[in-house]
């Protein structure tokens, strides 16, 4: 009947479920999404990623300079741009951004 | 004649994870009626959806809700598919079921955890959420994200689950089931928990029907209504039974959720057992045209999508009726006549999702 008492003691006895971040960092799973990165040597600056991005987070220019810029605060990490890129030059890095 | 007092419950209240205000008309400690005030988190997503193309909308739609995100994109994708006459391959249908049920499990664990928190049992709340974390891990391992899976798209799914990861889901379920076997008897049998839940916030079958209750709220009042029984995605091959209770009180609603948690485990196991090999999406070139209404069962109940396309990239109209919206009139009926101290528990017992409601 008073099963909750046992449950309270269980909570007191059991190990921590949390980690002492940043001393102990949880590794992401393989294939986790994260920060979008580009390999600029392969990119042909076609602008398809910028056109398809649902959050308008990418800007691509061809003239006067070829540029590819990401607004990381707009990016919703959906990885749609990675799917549509014809050159497959985009990938995601699951490492947390550090404050730099 | 006694004078009534009106006190505001919310928009910021310890039991509410999201902002909604209920103006409670009180006679002493008893609630006479409640007046809901919504609109604190309206984001205009329906309008925004008309300005993006229908493939981009998939990711926007998912962000209507941070809990049942996958089922939102699933319902939307099913709507688009029905407008374009596409049938996703069987493997995609099974993957959709697996992710939907993982979502249902994490949502129900969240809901019963919040309920435990609402009646003051924080240790139980933390344990339930600790269990929920295993499911979040399973989702991250299979899709790359914890909540916004982004794997459903018109025509099928974007990502396959390889056999290794299917096995990982199964081992996760074993852990989750073991932990639930310890926690659920506490939640359902403890004396003080029963004191707080039994006979509180009763919604009888007739009122539930008249006020259009959906999901666990309706099923706890004896209405055997579960859209999964209609067999969308691969549910038709998995023999889903609605979990029905008849008492209509907060305890019955909790019990429905607990039973559905176990049901989801068996659905996922069954789906993994009989998942066929094959492609995971169908290519298409057409654009959505015409009108469609699509429904699916979310953890909180039935979600309804109205989509109108005109043969172009953009949809002309997108309308969403989320389950919490349908459950607001029933919760007002539950509140009438209850004690002020029970309001928090009653509101949490329908598992309200306000961001969903206001879109
Ligand atoms: S789609 Fe790919 S190749 Fe084209 S601009 Fe974007 S990153 Fe470069
Ligand atoms: S991940 Fe999504 S939101 Fe981010 S840049 Fe790519 S398409 Fe845009």
Overview of the structural elements:
The complex is a heterodimer of chains A (100) and B (359). Chain A has 100 residues and is α+β, with helices and mostly antiparallel strands. Chain A has a domain of 65 residues: Alpha-Beta Plaits. Chain A has three helices and four strands, in the order αβαββαβ. Chain A has a two-stranded antiparallel ribbon. A two-stranded antiparallel sheet of chain A has the order 2-3. In chain A, a hairpin with a 5-residue loop joins strand 2 and strand 3. The radius of gyration of chain A is 21 Å and the shape is elongated. Chain A starts with a helix and ends in a 7-residue tail after the last strand. With 359 residues, chain B is of the alpha+beta class. Chain B is built from 13 helices and eight strands. In chain B, the strands form three sheets. Chain B has a three-stranded antiparallel β-sheet. A three-stranded antiparallel β-sheet of chain B has the order 6-7-8. Chain B has a two-stranded antiparallel ribbon with strand order 4-5. In chain B, helix 5 packs antiparallel against helix 6. Chain B is globular and about 70 Å long. Chain B starts with a strand and ends with a helix. The mean pLDDT of chain B is 87. Chains A and B meet through helix 1 of A and helix 2, helix 5, helix 6 and helix 7 of B.
